[in-house]
């Protein structure tokens, strides 16, 4: 069978040079809690960076592909998005 | 003391590097900034690089650039759940000089291209983020980087910072993109023996094939799947408008798995080993989304300017040409010592007169049309599959009977009119 079926397996294939601090910030967890029943970023993020933990959004920025979808797709403009510091973040080796 | 250059190019992708290359070649003192560990470290592409626009910059680049395979066959699959209607063109003229296009792996290609710009005299500095443009008296005079004492000045700044283009947004050249102006593409590189690739795709050594997949690859939502042959890997991916993923609540990596396991696709990739997973946005707003591209002391090129023809999967070629046109404009501006918007706006005019402006104009309403009317992907592709199956299945029914059955399958008179109208409308937005 094909390998790398789950997102965790896919992420294992990628090289990251994670910074010590996050380049992604959920501005207000309360907005996610009260105004965003779908928590849609937890669905469309291609690296499953966002995980809802009962009352707060966990942001696994270390696995971010820096695509920008969350900044554009958050229906409440509740994500502050920057590039990781120079040389940090994802390092594509091939494609 | 702050550094001063003639020109700073932000981003060493195809647009920025093309611009820096042309400037350096003309003797302009140019700094090429790249936030990745190396050029290409942040870049993703399905993998088709067009020969012509690259050769406008480096003639016969294909004799030394790290390319995968020249493409001799392009297939288009209209895919349903258990079937596909495929259209293909294969021509050996594409397999020899001057070639049409090549598959490439961008991390390798972008490094090579940036090295060529350095050979011409450009200064490449990696691992450096340009965090904002420095604006004085309504004019861009440099960039602030994330390095200590990181302010750098120049007569003109070229924003080649990719689809997100936070810098053009900072300048107010465009608002934040809407989710229907960007497509999210996910892709995997699959390792597979060279001979197996050639057998499966009906290729000789040093020939390549591309397959674009419409319909069930995206479960009916607007987008495409793709499968491209590299030397000893395959690139397989799927891209849909971000708005489509949001509306249908689909996880992009699950959609990628769906494509990989689709019975029409699986046999191509069986036994391969995934070696990298990648995600990236593609600017697909088209003509209507092109931002302001010239200001006082600043130009915008490539993805940052939304220069992608999604219908023909062209982007890196537009990036290169836009970078080259920006360089031409800067060289002229330098001669006249005038970097004002009215001078630099000549870049916009060149852009619009070129194939870039013309092609984006041609398809200006296409993406929006197909997004607004999902029946093309949801209904008409399955219909085409059923009709083809009906016509070519020999079961004793006469061909006239079969045509009647197909006609009945199109639905009521009202539905037939709707279909005819939709085909007319599709023709209108594509012609």
From TrEMBL, chain A:
List the PROSITE patterns hit by this protein, alphabetically.
4FE4S_FER_1, 4FE4S_FER_2
SUPFAM superfamilies xrefs: 4Fe-4S ferredoxins
Which InterPro entries does this one have?
4Fe4S_Fe-S-bd, 4Fe4S_Fe_S_CS, ETF-QO/FixX_C, Fd_FixX
Question: Could you tell me which residue ranges the 4Fe-4S ferredoxin-type domain spans?
Answer: 55-84
Any GO MF annotation of the entry: iron ion binding
User: Sorted alphabetically, which keywords does the UniProt record give?
Assistant: Electron transport, Iron, Iron-sulfur, Metal-binding, Nitrogen fixation, Transport
Report the protein's function: Could be a 3Fe-4S cluster-containing protein.
Family of the protein in this entry: To ferredoxins from P.putida and C.tartarivorum, ferredoxin I from A.vinelandii, ferredoxin II from D.desulfuricans.
Q: What is this protein called?
A: Ferredoxin-like protein
TrEMBL record, chain B:
The cross-references to Gene3D superfamilies, in alphabetical order and at most eight, read: FAD/NAD(P)-binding domain (3.50.50.60)
Keywords assigned? FAD, Flavoprotein, Oxidoreductase, Ubiquinone
Q: Which cofactor does it need?
A: FAD
Reading the lineage from the top rank, the first entry is: Bacteria
MF terms per GO, please?
electron-transferring-flavoprotein dehydrogenase activity
Enzyme Commission (EC) number = 1.5.5.1
Say if the entry is tagged with keyword Nucleus: no
Keyword Oxidoreductase belongs to the record? yes
FixC-like C-terminal domain mapped to chain residues: 367-431
Q: What InterPro entries does the record point to?
A: FAD/NAD-bd_sf (IPR036188), FixC-like (IPR039651), FixC-like_C (IPR059103)
- Short name of one Pfam family: FAD_oxidored
**Family, similarity comment:** Belongs to the ETF-QO/FixC family.
Q: What is this protein called?
A: Electron transfer flavoprotein-ubiquinone oxidoreductase
Annotated organism of origin: Anoxybacillus ayderensis
């Amino acid at each position: 069978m094909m390998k790398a079926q789950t997102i965790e397996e896919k992420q294992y294939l990628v090289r990251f040079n994670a910074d010590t601090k996050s380049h992604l910030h959920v501005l207000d967890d309360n907005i996610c809690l009260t105004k965003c029943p779908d928590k849609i970023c937890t669905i469309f993020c291609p690296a499953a960076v966002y995980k809802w933990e009962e009352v707060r959004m966990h942001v696994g920025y270390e696995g971010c592909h820096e695509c920008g979808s969350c900044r554009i797709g958050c229906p409440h403009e509740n994500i502050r998005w920057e590039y990781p510091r120079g040389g940090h973040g994802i390092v594509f080796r091939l494609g | 003391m702050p550094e001063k250059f003639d020109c700073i190019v932000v981003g060493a992708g195809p647009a920025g590097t093309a611009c820096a290359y042309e400037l350096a070649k003309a003797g302009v003192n140019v700094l090429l900034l790249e936030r990745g560990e190396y050029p290409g470290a942040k870049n993703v592409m399905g993998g088709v690089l067009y020969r012509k626009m690259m050769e406008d910059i480096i003639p016969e680049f294909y004799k030394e650039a790290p390319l995968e395979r020249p493409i001799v066959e392009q297939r288009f699959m209209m895919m349903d759940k258990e079937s596909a209607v495929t259209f293909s063109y294969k021509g050996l003229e594409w397999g020899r000089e001057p070639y049409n296009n090549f598959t490439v792996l961008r991390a390798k290609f972008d490094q090579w291209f940036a090295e060529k710009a350095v050979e011409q005299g450009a200064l490449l500095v990696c691992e450096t983020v340009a965090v904002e443009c420095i604006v004085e008296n309504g004019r861009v005079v440099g960039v602030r980087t994330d390095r200590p004492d990181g302010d750098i000045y120049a007569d003109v700044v070229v924003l080649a910072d990719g689809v997100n283009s936070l810098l053009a947004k900072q300048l107010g050249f465009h608002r934040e993109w809407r989710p229907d102006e960007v497509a999210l593409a996910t892709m995997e590189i699959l390792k597979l023996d060279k001979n197996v690739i050639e057998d499966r795709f009906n290729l000789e050594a040093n020939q390549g094939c591309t397959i674009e997949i419409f319909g069930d690859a995206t479960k009916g939502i607007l987008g495409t799947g793709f499968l491209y042959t590299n030397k000893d890997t395959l690139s397989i991916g799927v891209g849909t408008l971000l708005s489509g993923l949001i509306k249908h609540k689909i996880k992009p990596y699950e959609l990628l798995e769906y494509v990989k396991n689709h019975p029409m696709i699986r046999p191509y990739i069986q036994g391969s080993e995934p070696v990298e997973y990648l995600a990236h946005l593609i600017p697909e707003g088209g003509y209507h989304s092109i931002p302001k591209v010239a200001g006082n002391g600043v130009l915008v090129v490539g993805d940052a300017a939304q220069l992608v023809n999604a219908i023909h999967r062209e982007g890196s070629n537009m990036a290169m040409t836009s970078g080259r046109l920006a360089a031409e404009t800067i060289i002229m501006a330098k001669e006249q010592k005038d970097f004002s918007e009215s001078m630099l706006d000549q870049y916009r005019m060149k852009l619009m007169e070129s194939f870039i402006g013309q092609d984006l104009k041609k398809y200006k309403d296409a993406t929006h049309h197909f997004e607004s009317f999902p029946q093309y992907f949801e209904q008409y592709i399955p219909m085409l599959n059923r009709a083809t199956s009906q016509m070519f299945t020999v079961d004793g029914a006469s061909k006239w009977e079969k045509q009647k059955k197909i006609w009945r399958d199109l639905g009521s008179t009202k539905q037939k009119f709707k279909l005819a109208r939709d085909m007319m409308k599709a023709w209108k937005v594509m012609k």
